[in-house]
Design goal:
Helix 1 (about 50-60) crosses helix 2 (about 60-70) and helix 1 packs across helix 7 (about 215-220). The protein is built from 7 helices and 9 strands. Mean pLDDT is about 80; it is low at about 1-5. Helices cover about 40% and strands about 20% of the residues. By secondary structure, the protein is α+β, with helices and mostly antiparallel strands. A 6-stranded mixed β-sheet has the order 4-5-6-7-8-9, sandwiched between helices.
Length: about 260
């Protein structure tokens, strides 16, 4: 082999008539990024935490610090993960619009498709690009099946949606916490808090199974009502078209977590 001391390249000669392969050597003065912080420069007490930020604080404190204190964010570049975010935003918006306008259409499929196409045009450009038609069709079917199941199951179990994208704020142990509940339904004196997720059935099932459903816990703690009744919580997973809850007998089609 031949080493050129004037450059960072090493050429390898195998003694035959072969092309030479250049190997880039590691620069001697290469360092990993290093950030030096002044403890007195940052205020670790935030005015308002959310259920999602508290989740990071408890389980991934370094992520909480970088994201919420240092304000470091991932680059806004379209990736596969962003497609899931887009899908979640679209289905959330359709559900929000349905319960906001309460249209009760005769042909729910036609109503859904109109809203779906409007939302695609507004925020789903990635799903309208060339070659994305199969994914768009698959998403359309999953979204409609989930939407239709959500509406049907709540009606069949006599739950009436009374709040949609409901903001709430309160104090727990001297900590100000705020958030937005996707849906709040009422039946008699009882309430049902529903957190809607486009996907992630297994993840939410395990959160409930292990009593780690912190987001639902905070929502239940913060939701205040002057009426006497029980507050229940549940996840609804759109692509699985299923409710998951800890509470039996509130939704007959839900998957209920059992504890031994």
């Amino acid at each position: 082999h031949i080493i050129d001391s004037s450059s960072d390249n090493i050429s390898i000669d195998f003694g035959k008539v072969l092309p030479q392969y250049l190997i880039k050597s590691k620069t001697q003065n290469a360092f990993l990024p290093f950030i030096e912080l002044n403890n007195y420069q940052y205020n670790f007490k935030r005015e308002l935490e959310s259920p999602s930020s508290l989740d990071k604080l408890l389980y991934y404190p370094h992520q909480w610090f970088f994201e919420y204190i240092l304000q470091f964010r991932n680059a806004n570049v379209l990736t596969t993960n962003d497609i899931f975010t887009i899908k979640g935003n679209i289905i959330h918006r359709i559900i929000e619009h349905y319960y906001m306008s309460n249209p009760k259409p005769i042909d729910i499929k036609s109503w859904f498709l109109e809203q779906f196409n409007n939302e695609l045009a507004r925020q789903g450009a990635a799903l309208l690009s060339y070659g994305s038609e199969p994914e768009k069709r698959s998403f359309e079917q999953l979204a409609f099946n989930g939407f239709q199941t959500l509406v049907r199951v709540l009606i069949e179990n006599n739950w009436e949606v009374i709040h949609n994208e409901h903001p709430l704020k309160g104090q727990i142990n001297e900590e100000q916490i705020g958030g937005i509940i996707d849906l709040v339904a009422k039946r008699g004196d009882d309430f049902l808090i529903i957190d809607i997720k486009f996907s992630g059935y297994t993840k939410r099932y395990n959160l409930l199974k292990n009593n780690e459903d912190l987001q639902l816990f905070w929502y239940k703690k913060l939701y205040n009502s002057s009426e006497i009744g029980t507050i229940y919580t549940a996840y609804f997973i759109v692509d699985a078209a299923k409710f998951i809850t800890k509470y039996p007998n509130i939704l007959k089609d839900a998957n209920v977590i059992t504890f031994k």
